[in-house]
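Hi all, a correction to my earlier message: I attached the wrong file for Arsenical pump membrane protein. Here's the right sequence:
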Amino acid sequence: MQLFLASLVFVVTLILVIWQPRKLGIGYSALAGAIIDLLLGVVNLHNVLTVWSIVWNATFTFVAIIIISLILEWAGFFRWMALHFARLGKGRGVRLFAMVVLLGAIIAAMYANDGAALTLTPIVVELMLELGFTPDTSLAFIMASGFIADTASLPLVVSNLVNIVSADYFHIGFVSYASVMVPVDLVAVGGSLIVLYLFYRKVLPTSYDGSKMEVPSSAIRNRGTFRVGVLVTLLLLVGYILSGTVHVPLSVVAGAGALVLILVAVRSSQGVEVSSSTSVEPREPSTVEIRRLLKEAPWQVVVFSLGMYIVVYGLKNVGLTQYLSMVIDAMAKGSPLFASVGTGILIAFLSSVMNNMPTVLVGALSISAVPVTGVTHSILVYANVIGADLGPKLTPIGSLATLLWLHTLKRRGTDISWSSYIKTGFVLTIPLLLLVTTALFVRLVLL
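and the right structure:
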């Protein structure tokens, strides 16, 4: 009976999270499920404390990174980068396509997949309009920017919320994680570029008129925040690397960077700084804008992480994760390559139907119950991350980043149907998933 109730609560909670009723949102939808589990006795207060110990660092790190992304976007940093990358296209359509993909990979790596979805998508839409591309061509660039946001979110612990959750759960340091996943991510980015090109090559333009684009410097809206933002980004990377040595949580490092940028943005100016080559109407005072940006930060993710993971922990309490452990254990007893590819595909499909946020913890809880050590255990841990990062591209409900990306596009007049997305997602994701999980095997076993 408890198994049925826990499963029912999970399904209903997931439906509410995806549906996102206005009065609840993702956070309170998940919290409602957690409260129901508490009332039913599926979880207890000790479980709540256990879940909080797992997710607090990941959640606040993620929120801090998104705040940094929003402030940098407000300062014009990402549009400045996009214009520079667009100029590297040198008038050739295929080259511009590659530059957009590489830009998305860089943003996803440093500012998380949700940061890439929030900042890059509007810029790509605007760029397509400025260059006068056809709807089919524009859709190719837009889909590429959305696809790469998740597939390139492997390299660093901070590149994806599920990465942070998994690294915290298995006590993997920033440098140790990067030493494994940076090479794997290079394969993921290269593979993404190839599959995206093969899929969209017929609609890519042979050339474009670069003179239609504004000069990169004109994109800078607030020079003070822009300059400090570049410095903060570099210092954050150093801080992440040192965090394991000095035993400082990543959330403290990212939070310090966010706080510095907030203070600088507020003090930088009461209006807006622009280059002399542009004419921009004065904007609201920066203090007002920063308040708006902070309000737009994903604070509900804090509540969502706690609520959703409590619901998932309820599944563990009633024994549901034991079945997944049995499947993973069977794959682990095979070859290391089979363990990597099999676990990655399994977690990817689970992520595509039940969202990658709960899936990564379900996977972690299941893997921790599998009696393996050494390289096989490492393969399972990292394959779980790969599946949770790439799997969401199979369906629109696979990740919050994808839902956010689709919502952003719809607001800007581009409506992508779920059927169209799923058809494209399967064609693009399956070969990439096989390639990247194989690359993980090579990295951990052969190198």
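Sorry for the mix-up. The first helix runs from residue 2 to 19.
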